[in-house]
Amino acid sequence: RIQFVLSYYKNRKVVLMANSSIIGKIKRKIIRDFIRDSEIVSAINNTECSEPEELINTSIFNFNQNPFTINKVGTFITIQVHIPSVISGSPVYVKPTLEIWIISHERHMYVDNVPKITENRNDYISRLIDEKINGESSFGIGKVVLESNIEGSFQMDFLYRKMVFSCIDINDSLCDLKD
Predict the structure, then answer these.
(1) What are the tens digits of pLDDT across the range 87-108?
(2) Beta strand pairing status for 174-176 and 12-17?
(3) Which of 31, 60, 114, 165 would bridge with 98, disulfide CB 3.0–4.6 Å?
């Protein structure tokens, strides 16, 4: 949902629309970075994929995937981008959030394919993602910041770790209103 806010900017009445172009840009970059990272690819451990690109839409999704519809043992990552609002007091900036879910079947939580890893699979992938994204400066303005990293379970068989990052971007969709 795109939010519209009526405001005055430089003595002109404007409608502020959170710029949605950053949504696809962030998702594409994150997915590209994940499939190029041999540690993340190895940590996902999808033995049905022979090439990292095959993880797209099988283990890495650019939309929220419902674990109740998954019926195989494995791990998958979902990526969502939200633009909840403009930054308070400024019609020029928005604060997009990047939400990454790491979801694993309970029988896939033990990392048995990577030597010397004692963390569970979700924690390990979360650490790799945090090291890759936190502090990144190629989205919007400034650096990406980790806002939260929480774990839980969806149901008896699937466990998750949900990471939320935020950044600041220019709201370049300032539109003049005709009176």
Answers:
(1) 766 777 888 899 999 999 999 9
(2) antiparallel
(3) 165
DSSP 8-state secondary structure symbol assigned to residue 55: G
State how far the Cα of 87 lies from the Cα of 96, in Å rounded to an integer: 10
Count of CB atoms situated within 10 Å of the CB of 151: 13
Cα separation, 16 vs 160, whole angstroms: 35
State residue 68's pLDDT score: 67
pTM, two decimal places? 0.83
Rounded distance, CA 20 to CA 26, Å? 11
Chain segment 11-52, per-residue pLDDT in tens: 554 444 446 777 888 899 999 999 999 999 999 999 999 999
List strand residue ranges (DSSP E) for the chain, in order: 4-9, 12-17, 60-61, 75-82, 93-94, 97-105, 141-153, 158-170, 174-176
Task: Summarize pLDDT for 124-160 with one digit per residue, the tens.
Answer: 999 999 999 999 988 778 899 999 999 999 878 899 9
Distance, in Å, from the CA atom of 155 to the CA atom of 160, rounded to the nearest integer, reads 10
Query: Which of helix, strand or coil describes residue 106?
Result: helix
Whether the Cβ atoms of residue 84 and residue 98 lie closer than 8 Å to each other: no
